[in-house]
Amino acid sequence: MANIVRKLWRFLQSKELMGVDKFGNCYFRQSKKMDGALTEKRWVEFKGDPDPTTVPVEWTSWLVGRRKVAPTAQELMELEAQRNLVKMKAARLQSQKGERMPFNQGYGAQTEDLALLVSFLVLK
What we know:
- The structure is a single chain.
- By secondary structure, the protein is an alpha+beta fold.
- Helices cover 49% and strands 19% of the residues.
- The chain is elongated, with a radius of gyration of 23 Å.
């Protein structure tokens, strides 16, 4: 019993909080040496019910090891602002889609979509 308590105590002391996302999920890592090599375990503790769809892509990349460094709060705020800007532009483009005449009615929706894409890039 004492052995289990000791292992649990070491585990709780060695985990390092790396950050918290906008959903309140906490991200941790634990580094230790095994056979002379440094290993790292990364995980998320969900706020409330475990829902993997609430994990932002930046944190997912860090959890699986595609990123070496955890995302910073500044980086997360900038990316969220960029996502909101894209959503606003997409909504504006969608509202303009009904107002515009098709670029060339003979080619159907593909040409109309191309015309909208070109107009979107010009508006940018």
